[in-house]
Amino acid sequence: MNKLLYFFLLLALLIGCGSPKVVTTKEAPAIITEPSLSTAPDSIPADQQEVTLQGDEGEILGPFLPPAIPETIYEPYLRRAETNAPSLPFPDNSCHIAVEVRNYDGVDGCGILLESDEGNLFLVGATPRGDPLEAGTRISIGYEFMKNYEGSTCGNADAVIRITCMRLLRVSSGVARPVVCESYDRPSRWLLDLAVGVGATYITRYPWDDGRFVYLIESPSGQYLYDCRGYLICKPRKNCLGFIKDFSSGVLIYEG
């Protein structure tokens, strides 16, 4: 009996000595380092920080810079101090010559001058009947010369005339001067300003006569059609698409 008791005590002692011990260790405190001032994002100007967005599959979504807007190129003013005057056309009372009404304010004491396609500059000495002369319009006129005219100090005009016939060819677009005719792949400043002013949704370029172009502006209020020099050909309440000869050659250059 004593041997059996002694055996159980020895077995209990062995089991107690062999039980696993739980060891706990203290973690070292985390070391927090402040970023260097030279690399801190807040120290870089906002306009120099690059922000790149990525989609679910890693494709780059940005940043996107707005496209550059081509500045408007205007036809230069004619200055007789720098250019020779072409021969004057023969006067006629019928509307036989096309001219553009241009504002020459600040050029040798001149204001409104009529500029012919050949490069003649006419000063109107007497107010014509009908609508006033508006810069940016194109008209055809008949006229007679006014001799011994002393009502202006304009030294840039080739002749002073009295208008005897006047017919409107194209109305003013609001552009201060005629624009150099260009084929825009993106709307130039003058065209973009017109489009934004009417809340345009689309601008489409179409070919026109003599290798020129026209631009159809579509807006909630209707359609506007401008030629490449800024002259208004058609406006709302008219079907401006009816002026387009070749629909298949249209090129979308703006989407609002």
Classification by helices and strands: mainly beta
- Strand line-up in the sheet with most strands: 1-2-3-5-4
Radius of gyration: 40 Å
- N/C terminus separation: 105 Å
H/E element order: HEEEEEHEEEEE
| Quaternary structure type | single chain
The biggest sheet amounts to: 5 strands, mixed, barrel
The shape, in one word, is elongated
Helical content, roughly? under 10%
Low-confidence stretches: 19-51
As a percent range, the share of strand residues is 15-25%
Number of helices: 2
Mean pLDDT: 80
The count of DSSP E runs of length 2 or more, i.e. the number of strands, is 10
Describe the structure.
This protein is mainly beta. It has two helices and ten strands; from the N terminus they run αβββββαβββββ. The strands form two sheets. The chain has a five-stranded mixed barrel with strand order 1-2-3-5-4. The chain has a five-stranded antiparallel β-sheet with strand order 9-8-7-6-10, with no helix packed on it. Strand 7 (213-219) and strand 8 form a beta hairpin. The longest helix has 16 residues, at 2-17. The chain is elongated and about 150 Å long. 19% of the residues are buried.
